Amino acid sequence: MFQPVITGTGVFTPQEIITNAELVVAFNAYADRVNGENAGAIAAGEMEPVGHSNEDFIVSASGIHQRYVMNKSGVLDPAVMHPLFPKRDDEQPGIMTDMAVDACNKALAKAGVAADEIDLVICAASNHERAYPAIAIEIQQALGAGGFGFDMNVACSSATFGIQAAADMIRSGSVKKALVVNPEICSAHLEWRDRDCHFIFGDVATATVIERKEDAKGDHFEILGTKCLTQFSNNIRNNNGFLRRTYEGAMSDQRDMQFMQNGRKVFKEVLPIVSKHILGHLAELEISPDDLNRLWLHQANKTMNDFIGKKVLGRVPEEGEQPNILQDYANTSSAGSIIAFSKYSDDLAPGDTGVICSFGAGYSVGSVVVRRG
Known about the structure:
Number of helices: 11
Helix content: 25-40%
């Protein structure tokens, strides 16, 4: 049996930013247009008017101030309200591969690992641009990696589930060096025309190098344990699967084909599941919450993270103990906890312990307990 360690992480950040102010202007213009076109139905009580959004509402509801996106112009066009990507020829690399390769190269450089040393690539993300061939295999080819690759989707928990799969294979000896990469184009599955969720997501890609401890060339984090949990729920859902063309009326503009959630139920049901999961995982590893130095939580909602941090630690987290990147990146699905880990882990000393935890649709929860080596 081999000890798996994290030796490098990388983050690809898109160049374009949408601030809350810009988003509100675009959404309110869309609302005014829809309300004007349906003034008669609204006056007759046959239709509810689309309400305006505002910056205070967005910050209060989420803690988000801006988000990075792969295409800004389409999202902010009130007549479009979604990203616009040029169609790529089949011989061109996919957009997820372009994002992933940037993050992977940064992670490989930090780990001091050459791409051709990698013998496993897992592309773990909440949405994939095609059903097959696997995005992971395209990334593998673009990097010049060996071995094999496969795609994984556990929504916002995809990264931690991917780390568990890679760590288990490292531990068993079936692979030596792995890349878990999370290219998240969340702007493409978000319903930007829904006031209750139009501000939630952003785009990004993260990558994590995992290898045997004896092969680590420098600073690293030992993976002390991984733990995954799923429990079915419809409270977060996207029906835009590959069967959608076969459904009667599916080519119409159906709301359920994009991101949907019952936010209040999610808040009420997910928080106790996640808190119990982390505390149970720590207990199995005989680690006291008092011995934790850092919590890198899924970046979905500041209020949720504050609650989980307080529940796990038994007190309000001190400055730096539970870093948030939500205000800058928004919710980036599975990549959020890895962004937080990548940006807020170098300061930890040997022996310091932390938990990477993501949670989301499914419901799903994945935790990775690590210790600075």
